[in-house]
Amino acid sequence: MSEEPEKKPIFYDRWAFRYLAIACLALIACAIGATFYNHHPKPLKENRFAKRDIHAGSSRAILTLASGKKISLDEAPNGILAEESGASIVRTGSGQITYAVHESALSSDTVKNVGVNHLETPLGGQYQVRLPDGTKVWLNAASKLTYPASFDPGAERKVELRGEAYFEIAQIANTPFVVFSGKQRVEVEAGRFNISSYPNDEAIKTTLLEGMGKINSDNIIKSGQQSINKKGNLEIIPANTKEAVAWKNGLFLFEDESLETIMKSICRWYNVEIIYVNENARKELFSLSVSRFDNISSTLKSLENTGFVRFKIKGRKITVLR
Question: How far apart are CA 262 and CA 145, in angstroms?
């Protein structure tokens, strides 16, 4: 009887199985990681500006008294800062001063000797002032307001503006409030309005939110209208009031506005210089709605998300790329 050939046992290397399992797990992990990266690339892009980010502006201004004394308001304590022309100048909180007029200021002698004050914000600054008549003014970045420490009772209340400001006028019967900005004169009895009058802008824009006023004596502007004054050529159009006062409400809000106009606002608020690689980019139209208190990277990222523009930050210079 023939014998069956002897069957030799087969030995499996258990370590080989372990290595194979580890390799499979590694491949699976890589596949999952690649899939996650492909679907979630944004964090890397959003960090592109992280090391070069620039903070938003804040409440900063210089008050110059009639004597020539300058007071840095962001460093000044709350309370009375000075007494001038029958009024106490008081810092009431962060970003605000008020003029408390004494009864003695109403005398003719005091009025004749009234001093002129200047409130000036730097690039990256804004401030609020309550004038001697109770009018409230919000001053935007890189702006200057000139006004008396007390107004002459019964006479026109006159102030001068360079830059941008929002006004809430205290109504006083038969006493118009007049704002001079560049070669423009705006007169109102009461109401709320915004004037943008930067020297490097092509036009002075006056937006009336409430009330009625006169521009250069013979042009009537009503609530909900905006005047555009280009070198004396005046046009009155329906206003986008939300856009006009968005800065005062803590927003960048632009609807189909040129990139140049948007970048000017960003330049003033973040205190940066804008450089264009392609000059044609200036006229491209964009819409934007973001907080003014975000860092500049967040604001620029919102514009980049359109896919039509990119930016590079180096120091305080912003290069516009296309």
Answer: 23
Q: Which domains does the chain have, with CATH numbers?
A: 58-244 (2.60.120.1440), 250-321 (3.55.50.30)
Task: Work out the average pLDDT over 16-28.
Answer: 49
| 3-state SS, one letter per residue, for the chain | CCCCCCCCCCCCCHHHHHHHHHHHHHHHHHHHHHHHHHHCCHHHHHHHHHHHCCCCCEECCEEECCCCCEEECCCCCCEEEEEECCEEEEEEECCEEEEEECHHHHCHHHHHCCCEEEEECCCCEEEEEECCCCCEEEECCCCEEEEECCCCCCCCEEEEEEEEEEEEECCCCCCCEEEEECCEEEEECCEEEEEEECCCCCCEEEEEEECEEEECCCEEEECCEEEEEECCEEEEEECCHHHHCCCCCCEEEEEEEEHHHHHHHHHHHHCCEEEECCHHHHHCEEEEEEECCCCHHHHHHHHHCCCCCEEEEECCEEEEEC
Mean per-residue pLDDT for 130-138?
97
231: left (phi over 0), alpha (psi -120 to 50) or beta: left
**Residue with token string 């209340």:** 157
User: Contact, 114 vs 149, CB < 8 A?
Assistant: yes
Tokens of 102: 């004494």
Structure tokens at 36: 């996650």
pLDDT in tens, 213-268: 999 988 999 999 999 999 889 999 999 999 999 999 999 999 999 999 999 999 99
